[in-house]
Amino acid sequence: MKTKLLTISLIGLLILGLSSCKKEKLEGTPLESNKISDNYRSFYEIFVGGFSDSNNDGMGDLKGITKRFDYLNDGKPNSGESLGIDGIWLMPIMPSPSYHKYDATDYKEIDPKYGTMQDFEELSRICDERDVKLIIDLVLNHTSNKHPWFKACTEAYIKGDLNNKYAKYYTVVTEEEKSESLSTYYRIGNTNYYYEGNFSPVMPELNYDNDEVKQEIIDIINFWVGKGVDGFRLDAVKYIYNNDDRKTIDFLKWFDSECKKAKEDMYLVGEDWSPDYHIQDYYEAINCFDFSFAQAGGQIGQVVNGTSSVSDFTNYTEEYYNKVKAKNKDAILHPFLSNHDMDRIGGSMTIKTGKAFIASNIYMLSSGNPYIYYGEEICMKGSRGSANTDANRRLAMLWGDEDTVSDPEGSTYDKELQVNGTVVSHLNDENSLLNHYKKLIQIRNAYPEIARGEYHSIETDNHYFGGFYASYNDSIVGVFHNTSKDEISIDLSKYTNIDFKDLKVSVGLSDATYKNNVLTIGGYTSVVMK
User: Fold this and answer.
1) Lower Cβ count inside 10 Å, N or C end of the chain?
2) Which residues of the chain have pLDDT under 50?
3) Residue 446 main-chain phi, psi, to 5 deg
4) Helix 211-226 to helix 245-262 angle, to the nearest 10 degrees?
């Protein structure tokens, strides 16, 4: 079989002449309408401070995202000219004393380093115009210790004014109560009172047994919906009531209901960095990120590196899918390879080995909403290393042009280690990882069965070959992967009763053919069948 990078072999393929490389338009099952009306999306996570700088001060900002919007989504679905994402998650944008901004001092404002509320409204307008869901990070469990609420709270305790309403805005206990708790507490001045701060002494925990605090949250929801926000990514959800999952899940149900009062199709996803059983329980209230899929040692990493088989992966995914659907019939999986809290996946799944390509196939051509961490599409690298700082995981986007965005405060990562190119170099290379991601998103859009359909593993006895079929609106598609570097031929009729008629598309480092039930698929390549 002739090997060539990123071949797409189609029945019903329309070849388009495009600017920097060959791009193709896929003909699959049409969506219900031209404008996607539900919450199935291909999301892109952005650390605003590291993405794009519009005013040459070295700091990424909201105008920088607007400036780069044609790169993300140019408003021409499936043209192949832009990346084609239809969802954006902005890491925290509210005023904060830290570079990462996970400790807000004001829930209804934009950090001035990132721009103005007018800049945000313009970004929101463009998102709406191009049908891109815009969600923002909302840190509910704690504020900054510089937040006016907390300043008023501690002042009230120091003065003995316990009738002050802000005295009840945070979780504050006596020394005796502190000794009976598993949470972490810090003393308020010289008093005998202690405030909860499970992440840091500068991040005090809010008290959600107080209805006034919950009313503040309702006001925050309505404020951001009024600014055009389509949803929230909720940080560290299990700490709302630390060590009390039942109360936390009930709170999240309340939060979800309040969001839907403000906007019927409000999109929520929670961060619960925990074992599967814990994440699955939280699906009862809201969708969650599926951490078991991520990182080099996660489910995707294991199958890409050959430590588990493709069938191990698809069997696991089916079981996981069924468990979250049992918790909530409307649950949506949220797989990803890496995020802002993890070493970038480009350090372990590389372009040179081909693993970056097949890893992207596995999670982009699967159930639910995949999340691309900015720079992942050009195989950016970044890790804590000996410096032990997450700033090394949130480095400046490598545009390869005149953008002046700089690495965040505290980063120490050696720029010489960034050997996988820039956006400019990827755009000019037909076979680049960036252009590969464009094609994967086109495939997802052409075959909505992949994201939305009921997931069923197709188990095989070949370690490096396997897949699943998805049924949606009386239509069935199959997705199969070859995670080895060698060509594999498989008689599909041995493993499934599904009568696949056509090989619709192949994507990866090689080609594929299908004849008399035998699928021949090249190395590090995936196919979609009908």
Assistant:
1) N
2) 1-25, 29-37
3) -75, -30
4) 40
Where would I find the H helices in 408-477? Answer: 423-427, 433-446, 449-452
Quickly list DSSP for 233-292.
EESSGGGTTTT-HHHHHHHHHHHHHHHHHH-TT-EEEE---S-HHHHHHHTTTSEE--GG
Give the model's pLDDT for residue 27.
56
Catalytic residues: 235, 271
Structure tokens at 144: 């900054």
Coil, strand or helix at 226: helix
- Which residue type occupies 74? D
DSSP secondary structure string for all residues of 135-174: EEEE--SB--TTSHHHHHHHHHHHHT-TTSGGGGSB-EEE
In DSSP notation, 311-358 reads HHHHHHHHHHHHHHHHH-TT-----BS--TTS--GGGTS-TTTSHHHH
Are 492 and 519 spatial neighbours (Cβ–Cβ below 8 Å)? yes
Indicate the pairing of strand 287-288 with strand 267-270: parallel
Residue 463: burial class (beta carbons within 10 Å; 0-12, 13-18, 19+): middle
SS (H, E, C) 209-222: CCHHHHHHHHHHHH
The answer to whether 324 touches 283, Cβ cutoff 8 Å, is yes
239-270 burial, b at 16+ Cβ within 10 Å, e below that, comes to: bbbbeebeebbebbeebbebbeeebeebbbbb
Q: Do 427 and 21 form a contact (C-beta atoms < 8 A)?
A: yes
Look at the pTM and tell me if it is higher than 0.90: yes
Q: What is the pLDDT of residues 294-330, one digit of tens each?
A: 999 999 999 999 999 999 999 999 999 999 999 999 9
329-334: long-range pairs with CB below 8 Å, 24+: 331/283, 331/287, 332/39, 332/40, 332/287, 332/368, 332/369, 333/290, 333/366, 333/367, 333/368, 333/369, 334/269, 334/287, 334/288, 334/289, 334/290, 334/368, 334/369, 334/370, 334/371
Spell out the alpha helix ranges (H) of 28-113: 62-67, 69-72
User: Which of 499, 495, 497 lies closest to 460 in space, CA to CA?
Assistant: 495
CA-CA-CA-CA torsion sign (97, 103, 108, 112): positive
Rounded Cα distance, 291 and 269, in Å: 13
3-class state of residue 465 by DSSP: strand
376 within 8 A of 347, measured Cβ to Cβ: no
Pairing of strands 172-174, 185-187: unpaired
- pLDDT at position 18, please? 30
Q: pLDDT per residue over 30-53, tens digit each?
A: 444 333 348 999 999 999 999 999
Using an 8 Å Cβ cutoff, are 267 and 135 in contact? Answer: yes
- 492 and 500 in contact (C-beta within 8 Å)? yes
Tokens 């149900």 — which residue? 253
